[in-house]
Write a structure and sequence with these properties.
Helix content: 40-55%
Mean pLDDT: 90
Radius of gyration: 20 Å
Largest sheet: 6 strands, parallel
Oligomer: single chain
Low-confidence stretches: none
Number of strands: 10
Distance between the termini: 20 Å
Shape: globular
Number of helices: 14
Structural class: alpha/beta
Strand order of the largest sheet: 5-2-1-8-9-10
Length: 343
């Protein structure tokens, strides 16, 4: 298995990008961001008696897997038993409520402030991030944002996420407008804890404008019934539908199709829930996809990832067959632990 340094040396001459999955956050605090940890911290009170039991029945602590299963059950019930619409509605209601529970679980268990993570870990993370021209993250938490905000720790990084002072002047937040996105470097493809859709604008909560910890601001917003911009729908199709209704999310997703060079996938599971992203890479212009694998390359999870990535390479070749200048997709793998993302 190659190392991350091998990948950069071999392919990273110019235009290196990253897509970060849950493994990025787990590598920092697995006790918080693993599926089991989030499930243990989730507050199921006020939900139907079946919500928590659904996880046990499906043998999973993955919220998105359970949400997807409930949505599929509702669709199949409507097909097989159209007279049972009340039960189908119950499935959909439980799925919707579980999304809110997931938001709350992440917010409540999240480290309170950057000081909960030592400076050596942030330094290692910034060294890893320094390789990338654009960064796409599938994570909702604040770790990536915090790493970029550590100005006192080298290396110094550009951290343009497209948010600026709002047109109304100084506010407690900054806002995103499409005209500010042309030099954007960081993309939260599925939203994040600190991003809130205010209807007429997308707001990003900040510490610098309020002097109040971001986690405190998020928890206060949740207590007031406000929910951050989260794409936690169970299926890729439902995720894509929600993304298309947000200018910010849609522009970020669409930009994947235009980038060239090397794309490093770190902590990405390549699951069916994220087909809307995988298919964009398949149809896009990325020259090399380097995938980080954890542990034994021959484990069931890694074999599944390799199989899906191989299909991406093959479909790219099929899509460009017969063209004069086909944009082929080269695939490579590396030991994820060798990246030392958090030291």
């Amino acid at each position: 298995m190659q190392t991350f340094s091998d990948i950069i040396e071999r392919h990273g001459a110019e235009h290196v990008h990253a897509v970060l999955g849950n493994g990025f956050s787990q590598a920092c605090r697995n006790d918080i961001f693993s599926y089991d940890a989030l499930f243990d911290r989730a507050d199921f009170s006020g939900l139907s008696e079946h919500c928590r039991a659904a996880f046990e029945t499906l043998g999973s602590t993955d919220f998105e897997h359970v949400i997807k299963s409930l949505q599929q059950a509702a669709a199949l019930l409507s097909l097989y038993k159209p007279e049972e619409q009340e039960l189908a509605t119950a499935f959909r209601t439980d799925a919707d409520q579980l999304r809110e529970v997931l938001v709350g679980a992440i917010a409540e268990s999240h480290p309170d402030w950057p000081g909960d993570i030592d400076s050596d870990s942030f330094a290692a993370c910034k060294r890893f991030l320094s390789h990338f021209e654009r960064i796409y993250t599938l994570n909702y938490d604040l770790l990536l944002y915090w790493a970029f905000m550590q100005d006192e720790i080298d290396p110094q990084l550009s951290c343009d996420d497209g948010f600026r002072k709002p047109a109304t002047g100084d506010e407690d937040y900054v806002s995103w407008e499409v005209e500010n996105s042309y030099n954007q470097k960081i993309y939260y493809l599925h939203g994040a804890l600190h991003l809130f859709d205010a209807g007429d604008e997308l707001q990003k909560y900040t510490w610098v404008n309020t002097g109040k910890r971001l986690t405190e601001q998020v928890r206060e917003a949740l207590s007031e019934g406000k929910y951050p911009l989260f794409v936690s729908e169970g299926t890729s199709r439902d995720k894509l539908e929600k993304i298309k209704h947000s200018g910010y999310l849609h522009r970020g997703l669409a930009s994947i199709g235009s980038v060239r060079g090397l794309m490093v996938a770190f902590g990405v599971s390549f699951s069916s829930n994220d087909e809307h992203i995988l298919q964009l890479i398949e149809r896009g212009k990325i020259d090399v996809l380097a995938v980080g694998l954890y542990g034994d390359p021959d484990s069931p999870d890694n074999r599944r990832i390799v199989e899906r990535v191989s299909r991406m390479r093959d479909r790219r070749a099929q899509n460009h067959e017969g063209r004069r200048s086909p944009v082929t997709l080269e695939v490579d793998y590396f030991d994820a632990e060798s990246a030392g993302v958090w030291g």
